[in-house]
Design brief:
The chain has 352 residues and is α/β, with parallel strands linked by helices. 22% of the residues lie in helices and 33% in strands. The protein has 8 helices and 19 strands. It has a 6-stranded mixed β-sheet, with helices on both faces. Strand 12 and strand 13 form a beta hairpin. Keywords: ATP-binding, Nucleotide-binding, Transport.
Length: 352
């Protein structure tokens, strides 16, 4: 018997030859954990959800929920008998029922369960009280998405599957909904798998994050580790949160780059002295210092509200991102020189 809440063991998820994720193994240890799956469009993320929900069959491996085999080469529990709720990316509301009637389908599904969410509370949290009496064709895509989310939450499932649940929600409203959604899922211990294309959303919501690339689950780890300790160049390139620069290992805790000079820190993986490596450099790894004798040219500046991201050009024409807090008084313009603090020390050195 497994102690994990959900186990996926060596399952290939396939909707077609083009949309296939091979030999996936992952676990959700505890009830109430949230897993976010990230990957480019068309890679098979939705197929994973559909298969877990029972809408697709598997040829090999096992899917086990609460010690019960849902899918294997010999077993297939029908969707209606899995107590799994799936919220689709597109409008899945019944067109001939009002929003409130649609949402009540979720509440009525498991009305025998004593524990559950309050319909009025959910409607208020998701800001959909004002559309309760409208029909799906009378509301926006974002409102329809929130109504579908409310219906899924109120069904009180053992496992909730959400496919891009906030993709149609206005940006200025999305963060508030993310906070409320996490609050609901955590307080009620609703185990959830969320497919999203937004890494910030995944890092905020997820207890664990899975990166799906080239038909494989490339990395499955805590959000912090996925960001700071990516396990492959493919994951680095997909997350697009840093650059790779050439460097030479010069000691147990040091390496050398032609443009930046000596860089020290703790290597995540050991490399022999003299090794030629690709160093991951993220925006927060370098510090700004107007007094430094290491000056690089500013080629771009992005304002992010709480910070600026400067893009600097090195003498070898490589582009390096640097994070600077927005309260920093001296803002640098394009073509100006920008100082990098020396000596350069990075807490954890990630190389490939």
């Amino acid at each position: 018997m497994t102690k994990n809440f959900l186990e996926i063991n060596n399952v290939t998820f396939a909707a077609s030859a083009q949309s296939k994720v091979n030999n996936v193994s992952l676990t959700i240890e505890n009830q109430g954990d949230i897993v976010c799956l990230l990957g480019p469009s068309g890679i098979g993320k939705t197929t994973i959800l559909r298969t877990i929900a029972g809408l697709e069959k598997i040829q090999s491996g096992k899917i086990i929920l609460k010690n019960k085999i849902l899918s294997s080469d010999k077993t297939h529990i029908e969707p209606e008998n899995r107590n799994i709720s799936m919220g689709f990316q597109d409008n899945s509301l019944f067109p001939h029922y009002t929003v409130l009637e649609n949402i009540k389908f979720g509440a009525d599904r498991n009305k025998k369960k004593k524990k559950g969410l309050n319909l009025n509370e959910i409607n208020k949290l998701l800001h959909i009280e004002h559309i309760a009496d409208k029909y799906p064709h009378q509301i926006s895509s974002g409102e329809a998405q929130r109504a579908s989310l409310a219906r899924s939450l109120l069904s009180n499932p053992d496992l909730l599957l959400l496919d891009e649940p906030l993709s149609n929600v206005d940006q200025n409203f999305k963060e508030e909904i993310q906070v409320k959604l996490k609050q609901i899922l955590t307080e009620h211990k609703i185990t959830t798998i969320i497919v999203t294309h937004d890494s910030y959303e995944a890092f905020y919501l997820g207890t664990k994050c899975g990166i799906i690339l080239d038909g494989q689950l490339k990395q499955y780890d805590d959000p912090y580790n996925v960001y700071h300790f990516p396990n492959s160049i493919e994951v680095v390139n997909f997350l697009n949160r840093g650059i790779l620069i050439p460097a030479k290992v010069t000691g147990e805790n040091s390496l050398e780059n032609d443009d930046l000079g000596t860089i020290t820190g703790d290597f995540i993986k050991h490399y022999p002295k003299g090794s030629e490596v690709q160093l991951l450099l993220q925006p927060e790894d370098l510090e700004h210092d107007d007094q430094s004798n290491l000056k690089l040219e500013v080629v771009d500046r992005k304002f992010r509200g709480t910070n600026f991201i400067y893009t600097l050009k090195t003498t070898s024409n490589r582009l390096v991102p640097v994070f600077v807090h927005s309260h920093h008084i001296h803002q640098h313009e394009v073509d100006e020189k920008f100082g990098i603090k020396r000596p350069i020390n990075i807490d954890h050195i990630v190389c490939f």
